[in-house]
Amino acid sequence: MSPMLATITIAIAIGSWLPLSGGTWSPDASMAAEAASELHAYVEQQASAKGLTLQQWPSYSFQYQGHELAGRRVLYINAFCGQPPAYAKKRLVRVLDGGTCYFSTYYDPVNKQFIGIVFNGDA
Q1: What pTM did the predictor assign?
Q2: Angstrom distance (rounded) from CA 48 to CA 56
Q3: Which domain holds residue 77?
Q4: From CA 67, how far away is CA 107, in angstroms rounded?
Q5: Which of 21, 84, 97, 98 could cross-link to 102 by cystine, CB 3.0-4.6 Å?
């Protein structure tokens, strides 16, 4: 396998953090890494408080994009189970239903905290 192909395969593997084009500003990878280091604990706590059970954490992949919320720059995080589809670097992975396999939240890099979370429902 060529080195270039290996890099592409790793970049879209399950568990990847994929920058998503668009948004209102461009966050750097260090912001995503900072959010990633705290996300699991936050999501576990929020799911437990709602009586929900998460999928196995390594099964999630993540997209992130710079948004503005109430005048603050935040990182929008979209999570989903499984390997990212080919389009995942260009548009959000969205599905109806799917339960805790799909969730989204915001991360405030200045205050180093998450703002809200939405888990998909089940049909």
Answers
A1: 0.86
A2: 14
A3: 3-119
A4: 10
A5: 98
